[in-house]
Amino acid sequence: MGHFYTSITLVGVGQEPVASFFREQDRTAVISPCLNGITVVFDAESETQDREALLSLAARLSETFAKPAFAIMNHDDDVLMYWLFSDGRMKAGYNSMTLFYDDEDYNYFLNIFKE
């Protein structure tokens, strides 16, 4: 059996503002100390491999703090997915196994230079 995990990496946001955000949302998470301007969040709800919870949270964090948020989901060490958010909007995404999900919304690689 492989590993399952999710995380959101924030650039330019300290640990305490992120912790305050989670307290206000009444959400459980482990939040790393800020090191070189980078803070990593391990959200309990997303850890269930709930993709929608992860994407929604990453979008809200990037919008709230007006900073980039990079969400990652590893599924059983077989599938790696990631998404980059800026100002609450998804800018790029990747799915290492496009057939893993049936819906076409997640079978893509968005070009971050598209806009």
Give me a quick take on this structure:
It contains 2 helices and 6 strands; from the N terminus they run E-H-E-E-H-E-E-E. The chain is α+β, with helices and mostly antiparallel strands and 115 residues long.
Q: Which helices and strands appear, and what pairs or packs with what?
A:
Elements: E1 5-11, H1 15-25, E2 29-31, E3 38-43, H2 51-65, E4 69-75, E5 79-86, E6 89-95
Q: Structural class, from helix and strand content?
A: alpha+beta
Q: What general form does the structure show?
A: globular
Tell me the β content: 25-35%
Our count of helices gives 2
Secondary-structure element series: EHEEHEEE
Task: Report low-confidence residues grouped into runs of 5 or more.
Answer: 103-115
Give the proportion of residues in helices: 10-25%
Rounded average pLDDT: 85
Main β-sheet, in a few words? 6 strands, antiparallel
Strand order of the largest sheet: 2-3-1-4-5-6
What is the tally of beta strands?
6
Distance between the termini: 40 Å
Radius of gyration: 14 Å
